[in-house]
Design goal:
This protein has about 500 residues and is mainly alpha-helical. It has 21 helices and two strands.
Length: about 500
């Protein structure tokens, strides 16, 4: 009898333990089902890995295309000036129309990217810029050349949205390192078009230089298929399933795991709204950023075109220049002069391009230690100083060194303002915010040629002073920016 009672007691205890275990398993299962994670948490959990290397290389290469198309005019300007007997203002108008196309399509591409996806806009930008750039090489007249280059600018505006696509996949602690390093690709594009000019223009002419320069765009059209649509965009568009597939694929590539639970779906009907940019939260930021972008473009292309103009017309004041650089070339009356770049001029431009990456470690240091706003202030103030320094009389080595440092500073400034803009706006309006900023910046690009290429012939100091003053004022504007984005997660909603 006692044995029977003992057996029943043991069985009851065992059954109770099994029941408790099953209950705990069910509770844990329900708890896991209730767990949720955001795209931001997924991106941070996945961390840095092979996918980000692929992303860095392919999306960074898009900067090569953008740089080649923008820098092409600095190399080709002496050739087209000679072929069509152009005056200074006509040469400047070519650059201005490229930036006009960029300005018009910048806002449009930003709206479309927020509304219908980043990937489509960037891919379409590649197609448009490559197609119209190729057509440019067959331009029968100056008017056709100007029109086709403006369409190239429109395509490049779409390509520039790749910066948003790239930023939305990078974990917060890596953005201040990876995004400045993208300047390497811009430098490669700038140097590639200068090398093409050096090797191709004297033998085959500027038209073949443009045809060959289209090749990187064609290659990227294929490579870009390996980059997925932004998971942040897909979630905001209500397509959580596609976002989850993308995140799983990235996690597998990086040999990492996603957070437990399911992806939070935050459907936003009003995507790509300009009202977000001017609401009480972002109004001050937007207005100050627009001016910062204006100056960033104004200063950058001012430095590029000024250096090209100083070399082409031999307006720089050097104490040890060779005979060619001691002859001043000026436009007299309506007579055109044909002064192609010498080999030494191409060398000077190449060295100045290296300046765009030489101070990347300094830029990364500034971003991580001082943050985005203070970095902008420092870079803009020092840029203002170096613009004025270009006017001093020095040796050819001294001029090259000044140009080298100036290009480094204005390039670093452009990089920081790109990073800040991509970080400060929420996902629902990030592309539109970037589109507005890049469009406003092209106003600076449109004005820069008329100062650097037209006013330069009258007075070097008068041409360089506006760039210096604009940079100094922009430093004050950066001080007034209300938001610091260093180490901050990317916002999904406003």
């Amino acid at each position: 009898m006692a044995e029977s009672v003992k057996t029943e007691l043991v069985s009851a205890i065992y059954l109770q333990e099994v029941e408790l275990s099953e209950r705990r398993d069910a509770e844990n299962h329900n708890h896991n089902e209730e767990q949720m994670f955001t795209v931001e948490e997924a991106v941070e959990s996945i961390g840095f890995g092979r996918f980000h290397i692929l992303l860095f290389v392919i999306m960074g290469s898009s900067n090569i295309v953008e740089a080649m198309e923008i820098m092409l005019l600095a190399v080709a300007s002496p050739e087209i000036r000679c072929e069509w007997r152009l005056e200074d203002w006509q040469v400047a108008l070519v650059s201005t129309m490229v930036f006009f196309g960029f300005m018009v399509c910048g806002v449009i591409s930003g709206y479309v990217a927020d509304k219908y996806g980043r990937w489509k806009v960037v891919y379409g930008g590649f197609v448009c810029s490559a197609y119209f750039s190729l057509l440019t090489s067959f331009a029968p007249s100056y008017a056709w050349f100007v029109f086709l280059r403006s369409m190239v600018g429109c395509g490049v505006a779409g390509v520039s949205q790749g910066y948003v696509l790239k930023t939305e996949f990078i974990p917060a602690k890596y953005r201040a390192v990876l995004l400045p390093l993208a300047a390497i690709f811009w430098m490669c594009g700038s140097m590639l078009i200068i090398v093409l000019g050096m090797l191709v223009v004297p033998r085959l002419g500027w038209r073949w230089m443009i045809r060959i320069s289209v090749a990187p765009s064609v290659i990227l059209l294929y490579l870009f298929k390996f980059i997925p649509e932004s998971a942040r965009y897909n979630v905001s568009a209500g397509n959580a399933a596609a976002a989850m597939e993308t995140l799983k694929w990235i996690a597998e590539m990086n040999k990492a795991s996603l957070p437990p639970g399911r992806l939070v779906e935050t459907l936003v009907k009003e995507r790509g709204s300009w009202r977000v940019l001017l609401n009480s939260t972002f109004r001050r930021t937007s207005l100050l950023l627009w001016y910062s972008w204006f100056v960033a473009s104004f200063a950058y292309y001012g430095s590029v075109l000024s250096s090209s103009e100083l070399l082409e017309k031999n307006l720089l004041c050097v104490t040890d220049g060779d005979r060619a650089h001691q002859v001043k070339h000026r436009l007299e009356g309506s007579q055109c002069y044909c002064v192609p770049f010498a080999f030494s001029d191409y060398q000077t431009l190449l060295i100045s391009c290296l300046g765009e990456v030489s101070l990347i470690p300094v830029n990364i240091f500034l971003l991580n230690i001082f943050g985005r706003r203070r970095s902008l202030m420092v870079l803009q103030l020092v840029s203002a100083f170096f613009f004025l320094m270009l006017n001093i009389c020095t040796s050819m080595f001294g001029f090259t060194l000044l140009l080298f440092l100036l290009r480094a500073l204005v390039s670093m400034n452009f990089t920081v303002v790109y990073i800040y803009t991509a970080e400060v706006y929420p996902t629902v309006s990030r592309s539109l915010g970037m589109g507005f900023c890049t469009s406003v910046s092209r106003i600076g690009g449109m004005i820069a040629p008329f100062i650097a290429q037209v006013l330069m012939s009258q007075s070097v100091i008068l041409a360089l002073s506006p760039f210096s003053i604009a940079c100094a004022l922009c430093a004050a504007a950066s001080f007034l920016l209300p938001i610091e984005t260093k180490g901050r997660a990317l916002l999904q909603l406003a």
